[in-house]
Design a protein that fits this description.
Blueprint: E1 3-8, H1 17-28, E2 35-40, H2 63-73, E3 77-83, H3 91-98, E4 108-115, H4 120-132, E5 136-145, H5 146-149, H6 160-179
Parallel strand pairs: 1-2, 1-3, 3-4, 4-5
């Protein structure tokens, strides 16, 4: 079965990433076309990139890198739940992505983003990064602006429209993950 990781992309205390990722994962559980797992980068305990060799070599010397590589290699596609920090991507998620190379290749990726502008600028940056990693980013996206999807205390209060858009992201991520399977050496 096609495996998709929903990645909670922030490690900041009092973050919204886990709450939003839980919402994404919960909505994915009704699907029968793929298995969706929640992966929280905060649980990976990855220090600032500390591998001596470039990730493209695949020569990982640290146990935390080998464990991370094994986890990411097991998935066919991803939904990144990403905040927007200072008009771009969160450093913790970028660091986690930068640890690896081949494990990301020929896999699909979709985005659920949040922030003052719905996280749109972070996703634009992620699309460039995904291209370099030979990932297929899907067109559908869920934008969650603070003004409409969060209350005055920044508690997540998703709308029905956001939930509907999420299903389109799932549809496209699964379809592209399956289409790319031959490039990953899977039938």
């Amino acid at each position: 079965m096609t495996r998709i990781a929903v990645i909670a992309g922030s490690t900041r205390p009092n973050r919204n990433a886990r709450t939003v990722a839980d919402w994404v994962h919960e909505h994915a559980q009704d699907r029968t076309d793929a298995q969706f797992d929640l992966v929280d980068i905060a649980d990976q305990h990855l220090p600032l990139l500390d591998e001596p060799m470039p990730p493209a070599t695949g020569q990982y010397s640290k146990e935390h890198t080998r464990a991370w590589a094994e986890k990411i290699a097991s998935y066919d596609g991803f939904v990144f739940v990403t905040p927007e920090y200072n008009h771009s991507v969160p450093a913790a998620l970028k660091n986690a992505v930068d640890y690896l190379y081949a494990e990301w290749n020929n896999k699909s990726i979709g985005f659920v983003s949040y922030g003052s502008a719905g996280g749109t600028r972070a996703v634009e940056a992620w699309r460039l990064i995904a291209a370099e990693l030979q990932m297929a980013d899907v067109r559908a996206q869920v934008f969650l602006p603070f003004g409409s999807e969060f209350d005055d205390d920044f508690a997540f209060t998703p709308t029905e429209e956001a939930a509907g858009a999420l299903q389109t992201v799932f549809d496209q991520v699964v379809a592209w993950a399956e289409a790319l399977a031959p490039l990953r050496g899977r039938p």
